[in-house]
Specification:
The protein is α/β, with parallel strands linked by helices and 182 residues long. The protein contains four helices and eight strands, in the order αββββαβαβββα. 24% of the residues are buried.
Length: 182
């Protein structure tokens, strides 16, 4: 087992170094999955806005990202798919991203939000707990991603890979009710 961005794991699956990879594909920044990879869709997830509890918008249930023009952003490390996605989302909303802090872990990002360092976009799947000093708001439009599992074409029915896909489907079923539709 190993962790990595889709740009790293997809080639490793296709080269036979990994049997299966689990990856995200954002609705507005889809991950290119080659035709030589078989995939299954596991579930959808949504990223919400994390704000410091004292922020002027923190009392709201939902916001447009354009309203968050007074805080720096907290994101993943520059060059990662998550960093590039954050930059793309903000620019699409007409905001020039001021990313003041980068860290590769959502729990740490939430701790930084709690410390008034900035705002973050955090997927629901990545939030086991939210610090008391953080407020979570939905965004308009919703920021949706799909989680996929891939393997090499023709290998999805091999015993161990089929068992892995079955286990991933079973584990993913609990997330289906946690994400809104539409």
């Amino acid at each position: 087992m190993c962790e990595g961005e889709a740009e790293q794991t997809i080639p490793r699956v296709l080269e036979g170094d990994l049997d299966v990879a689990v990856l995200e594909s954002w609705q507005d920044r889809p991950t290119a999955i080659p035709a030589t990879a078989a995939r299954i869709e596991l579930f959808s997830d949504v990223a919400d806005l994390a704000l410091p509890a004292g922020h002027r918008l923190a009392h709201r249930k939902s916001v447009e990202l354009t309203e968050v023009d007074d805080l720096p952003w907290i994101g993943w490390s520059a060059g990662s798919g998550c960093y590039d996605w954050l930059v793309q989302v903000l620019r699409k909303e007409g905001l020039e991203p001021k990313i003041s802090c980068t860290v590769g872990g959502y729990p740490t990002q939430l701790a930084l939000v709690a410390g008034n360092v900035g705002a973050a976009l955090v997927p629901r799947l990545a939030r086991e707990s939210v610090p008391d000093a953080v407020r979570i708001l939905t965004t308009r439009p919703a920021l949706t991603r799909t989680i996929h599992a891939i393997c090499r074409v023709g290998e999805q029915e091999h015993g161990a890979i089929r068992a892995c896909f079955d286990a991933l489907r079973l584990a993913s079923a609990r997330f289906e009710s946690a994400t809104p539709t539409g």
